[in-house]
Design goal:
The protein is mainly β. Helix content is 7%, strand content 35%.
Protein backbone atom coordinates (compact mmCIF):
# COMPACT_ATOMS: atom_id res chain seq x y z
CA UNK A 1 0.00 0.00 0.00
CA UNK A 2 1.33 3.44 -0.91
CA UNK A 3 2.49 5.75 1.86
CA UNK A 4 0.00 8.55 2.56
CA UNK A 5 0.93 12.07 3.68
CA UNK A 6 4.33 13.70 4.04
CA UNK A 7 7.33 12.17 5.77
CA UNK A 8 8.02 13.06 9.39
CA UNK A 9 11.78 12.96 8.93
CA UNK A 10 14.25 15.21 7.12
CA UNK A 11 17.75 14.28 6.02
CA UNK A 12 20.49 16.76 6.79
CA UNK A 13 21.56 16.91 3.13
CA UNK A 14 17.99 17.81 2.11
CA UNK A 15 17.65 20.63 4.66
CA UNK A 16 17.61 24.24 3.39
CA UNK A 17 21.16 25.46 2.74
CA UNK A 18 20.91 28.33 5.22
CA UNK A 19 20.36 26.01 8.19
CA UNK A 20 23.58 25.79 10.26
CA UNK A 21 23.58 21.99 10.31
CA UNK A 22 26.06 21.25 7.53
CA UNK A 23 28.89 19.05 8.71
CA UNK A 24 26.95 17.88 11.78
CA UNK A 25 27.13 14.24 12.76
CA UNK A 26 23.97 12.36 11.85
CA UNK A 27 21.95 11.54 8.80
CA UNK A 28 18.76 13.24 9.95
CA UNK A 29 17.93 16.70 11.29
CA UNK A 30 14.79 18.29 12.72
CA UNK A 31 11.88 18.74 10.34
CA UNK A 32 9.70 21.79 11.16
CA UNK A 33 6.12 21.20 12.21
CA UNK A 34 3.38 22.51 9.93
CA UNK A 35 2.96 26.12 10.96
CA UNK A 36 3.08 29.79 10.01
CA UNK A 37 6.10 29.59 7.69
CA UNK A 38 7.00 27.18 4.86
CA UNK A 39 10.03 24.97 5.40
CA UNK A 40 12.12 26.80 2.78
CA UNK A 41 11.68 30.10 4.69
CA UNK A 42 11.87 28.90 8.28
CA UNK A 43 14.09 27.13 10.77
CA UNK A 44 13.06 24.85 13.66
CA UNK A 45 13.22 26.33 17.15
CA UNK A 46 15.57 23.54 18.28
CA UNK A 47 18.21 24.50 15.71
CA UNK A 48 17.97 28.14 16.78
CA UNK A 49 18.45 27.23 20.45
CA UNK A 50 21.30 24.78 19.82
CA UNK A 51 23.15 25.99 16.71
CA UNK A 52 22.39 29.71 16.50
CA UNK A 53 22.07 30.91 20.10
CA UNK A 54 24.29 28.18 21.53
CA UNK A 55 22.23 27.47 24.64
CA UNK A 56 22.62 23.72 24.22
CA UNK A 57 25.23 21.34 22.88
CA UNK A 58 22.89 18.51 21.95
CA UNK A 59 19.36 18.15 20.63
CA UNK A 60 18.32 16.52 23.90
CA UNK A 61 19.48 19.51 25.94
CA UNK A 62 17.74 21.92 23.56
CA UNK A 63 14.47 19.97 23.77
CA UNK A 64 14.54 20.15 27.57
CA UNK A 65 15.08 23.91 27.57
CA UNK A 66 12.28 24.46 25.08
CA UNK A 67 9.90 22.16 26.99
CA UNK A 68 10.51 24.19 30.17
CA UNK A 69 9.21 27.33 28.44
CA UNK A 70 12.43 29.32 28.29
CA UNK A 71 11.75 30.64 24.76
CA UNK A 72 8.97 32.80 23.38
CA UNK A 73 8.11 33.42 19.74
CA UNK A 74 5.99 36.50 19.05
CA UNK A 75 5.21 36.88 22.73
CA UNK A 76 4.00 33.33 23.33
CA UNK A 77 5.87 30.46 24.95
CA UNK A 78 6.58 27.73 22.41
CA UNK A 79 7.25 24.26 23.75
CA UNK A 80 7.32 22.49 20.39
CA UNK A 81 10.98 22.05 19.46
CA UNK A 82 9.94 21.69 15.82
CA UNK A 83 8.11 25.04 15.76
CA UNK A 84 9.00 26.88 12.50
CA UNK A 85 10.51 30.31 13.08
CA UNK A 86 10.56 32.68 10.10
CA UNK A 87 11.08 36.23 8.89
CA UNK A 88 10.00 39.06 11.21
CA UNK A 89 9.32 36.69 14.11
CA UNK A 90 10.39 37.98 17.53
CA UNK A 91 12.28 35.54 19.78
CA UNK A 92 12.66 36.14 23.51
CA UNK A 93 14.83 34.22 25.98
CA UNK A 94 12.75 34.47 29.16
CA UNK A 95 15.59 33.79 31.61
CA UNK A 96 18.00 36.40 30.25
CA UNK A 97 15.58 38.90 28.72
CA UNK A 98 17.38 38.78 25.35
CA UNK A 99 15.15 39.61 22.38
CA UNK A 100 15.82 39.08 18.68
CA UNK A 101 14.05 39.65 15.38
CA UNK A 102 14.53 37.25 12.47
CA UNK A 103 15.66 39.35 9.50
CA UNK A 104 16.87 38.60 5.96
CA UNK A 105 20.64 38.80 5.70
CA UNK A 106 23.02 38.68 2.71
CA UNK A 107 24.57 35.29 1.90
CA UNK A 108 23.41 33.65 5.17
CA UNK A 109 19.75 34.23 4.21
CA UNK A 110 18.65 35.19 7.73
CA UNK A 111 20.03 36.52 11.00
CA UNK A 112 18.85 36.94 14.59
CA UNK A 113 19.10 40.69 15.08
CA UNK A 114 19.16 41.87 18.74
CA UNK A 115 16.37 44.34 19.51
CA UNK A 116 15.14 46.33 22.51
CA UNK A 117 12.28 45.34 24.80
CA UNK A 118 10.16 48.14 23.32
CA UNK A 119 10.69 46.92 19.77
CA UNK A 120 9.95 43.34 20.82
CA UNK A 121 6.38 44.44 21.50
CA UNK A 122 5.44 44.53 17.81
CA UNK A 123 6.12 42.80 14.51
CA UNK A 124 5.52 43.49 10.83
CA UNK A 125 3.35 41.36 8.58
CA UNK A 126 3.03 41.46 4.81
CA UNK A 127 -0.53 41.29 3.48
CA UNK A 128 -0.68 38.27 1.18
CA UNK A 129 -4.42 38.37 0.52
CA UNK A 130 -7.76 39.76 1.72
CA UNK A 131 -11.20 38.23 2.11
CA UNK A 132 -14.65 39.26 3.22
CA UNK A 133 -16.07 37.40 6.22
CA UNK A 134 -19.42 37.21 7.96
CA UNK A 135 -20.94 40.63 8.58
CA UNK A 136 -19.10 42.22 5.67
CA UNK A 137 -15.91 42.70 7.65
CA UNK A 138 -12.55 42.35 5.90
CA UNK A 139 -9.85 39.90 6.97
CA UNK A 140 -6.19 40.46 6.13
CA UNK A 141 -4.11 37.32 5.60
CA UNK A 142 -0.47 37.90 6.56
CA UNK A 143 2.76 36.18 5.50
CA UNK A 144 3.11 34.37 8.84
CA UNK A 145 -0.34 32.78 8.77
CA UNK A 146 -2.01 35.41 10.93
CA UNK A 147 -5.41 36.87 10.15
CA UNK A 148 -6.21 40.45 11.15
CA UNK A 149 -9.86 41.50 11.15
CA UNK A 150 -10.79 44.98 9.91
CA UNK A 151 -14.30 45.83 11.13
CA UNK A 152 -16.36 47.98 8.78
CA UNK A 153 -19.43 50.05 9.59
CA UNK A 154 -21.03 49.63 6.16
CA UNK A 155 -20.44 46.30 4.32
CA UNK A 156 -21.57 47.87 1.04
CA UNK A 157 -18.89 50.54 1.31
CA UNK A 158 -16.01 49.23 3.48
CA UNK A 159 -14.05 52.48 3.60
CA UNK A 160 -12.13 51.35 6.72
CA UNK A 161 -10.52 48.52 4.75
CA UNK A 162 -9.87 50.15 1.38
CA UNK A 163 -6.41 51.44 2.29
CA UNK A 164 -5.10 47.95 3.07
CA UNK A 165 -3.72 46.53 -0.17
CA UNK A 166 -1.96 43.23 -0.84
CA UNK A 167 1.84 43.33 -0.47
CA UNK A 168 1.52 46.26 1.91
CA UNK A 169 2.75 45.86 5.49
CA UNK A 170 0.85 46.12 8.75
CA UNK A 171 2.43 46.77 12.13
CA UNK A 172 0.75 44.76 14.89
CA UNK A 173 1.31 44.37 18.62
CA UNK A 174 2.30 40.97 19.95
CA UNK A 175 0.85 38.88 21.38
CA UNK A 176 -2.33 41.03 21.47
CA UNK A 177 -2.35 41.34 17.66
CA UNK A 178 -3.74 44.88 17.65
CA UNK A 179 -3.32 46.84 14.42
CA UNK A 180 -0.89 49.73 14.98
CA UNK A 181 0.04 51.07 11.54
CA UNK A 182 0.09 50.36 7.82
CA UNK A 183 2.55 51.01 4.98
CA UNK A 184 1.63 50.41 1.32
CA UNK A 185 3.96 49.12 -1.37
CA UNK A 186 4.49 52.11 -3.66
CA UNK A 187 7.20 54.28 -5.13
CA UNK A 188 9.72 55.49 -2.51
CA UNK A 189 8.55 52.94 0.08
CA UNK A 190 11.43 51.54 2.14
CA UNK A 191 11.72 47.79 1.60
CA UNK A 192 13.90 44.83 2.52
CA UNK A 193 14.48 41.89 0.17
CA UNK A 194 13.84 38.48 1.74
CA UNK A 195 14.61 36.13 -1.12
CA UNK A 196 16.76 35.64 -4.21
CA UNK A 197 20.37 36.66 -4.71
CA UNK A 198 19.76 40.15 -3.27
CA UNK A 199 18.41 38.84 0.03
CA UNK A 200 18.94 41.24 2.91
CA UNK A 201 19.36 44.36 0.75
CA UNK A 202 17.46 47.46 1.90
CA UNK A 203 16.40 50.42 -0.22
CA UNK A 204 13.71 52.68 -1.64
CA UNK A 205 11.41 51.51 -4.42
CA UNK A 206 12.27 53.26 -7.68
CA UNK A 207 9.72 51.54 -9.90
CA UNK A 208 7.44 48.50 -10.12
CA UNK A 209 7.12 46.78 -13.48
CA UNK A 210 3.98 44.65 -13.37
CA UNK A 211 3.89 41.32 -15.17
CA UNK A 212 1.73 38.21 -15.08
CA UNK A 213 1.70 37.40 -11.37
CA UNK A 214 4.20 38.36 -8.69
CA UNK A 215 6.92 36.11 -10.05
CA UNK A 216 6.92 37.96 -13.37
CA UNK A 217 6.77 41.44 -11.78
CA UNK A 218 10.06 43.27 -11.24
CA UNK A 219 10.83 45.87 -8.57
CA UNK A 220 13.75 48.26 -8.97
CA UNK A 221 15.29 49.39 -5.67
CA UNK A 222 17.94 51.99 -4.82
CA UNK A 223 19.97 51.41 -1.64
CA UNK A 224 21.63 53.91 0.67
CA UNK A 225 24.82 53.90 -1.47
CA UNK A 226 22.89 54.83 -4.59
CA UNK A 227 23.25 51.39 -6.14
CA UNK A 228 20.24 50.03 -7.99
CA UNK A 229 19.11 46.42 -7.98
CA UNK A 230 16.17 44.48 -9.31
CA UNK A 231 14.26 41.66 -7.67
CA UNK A 232 10.98 39.81 -7.91
CA UNK A 233 7.88 41.48 -6.49
CA UNK A 234 7.37 38.33 -4.40
CA UNK A 235 10.63 39.01 -2.49
CA UNK A 236 9.88 42.59 -1.40
CA UNK A 237 8.81 43.43 2.17
CA UNK A 238 7.84 47.02 3.07
CA UNK A 239 9.37 48.32 6.33
CA UNK A 240 8.39 52.03 6.16
CA UNK A 241 6.31 54.52 4.22
CA UNK A 242 7.93 56.95 1.73
CA UNK A 243 10.15 59.45 3.50
CA UNK A 244 10.11 57.59 6.82
CA UNK A 245 12.88 55.83 8.70
CA UNK A 246 12.66 52.04 9.11
CA UNK A 247 10.00 50.88 11.57
CA UNK A 248 12.42 48.25 12.84
CA UNK A 249 16.11 48.32 13.71
CA UNK A 250 18.37 46.79 11.07
CA UNK A 251 21.83 45.19 11.06
CA UNK A 252 24.67 47.70 11.00
CA UNK A 253 25.28 49.11 7.55
CA UNK A 254 22.00 47.91 6.07
CA UNK A 255 20.52 51.42 6.15
CA UNK A 256 22.10 54.70 7.16
Amino acid sequence: MARMGGRRHLKTLAAPKFWPVRGKVGVFTVKPSPGPHPIERSIPLLIIVRDVLGYAKTAREARKLIARGYFKVDGRVRRDYKYPVGFMDVIEVTETGETYRVLPYPVRFFTLHPISKEEAGFKLGRIEDKSTVKGGHVQLHLHDGRNVLIRVSDPTNPVEAKQYQTLGTVKISIPQQQLLDYAPLEKDSLVIVFGGRNVGRVGRVVSIQRGVGRGQSIVTIEDVRGEKLQTSLDYVFVIARPGEEPWISLPEGAWR
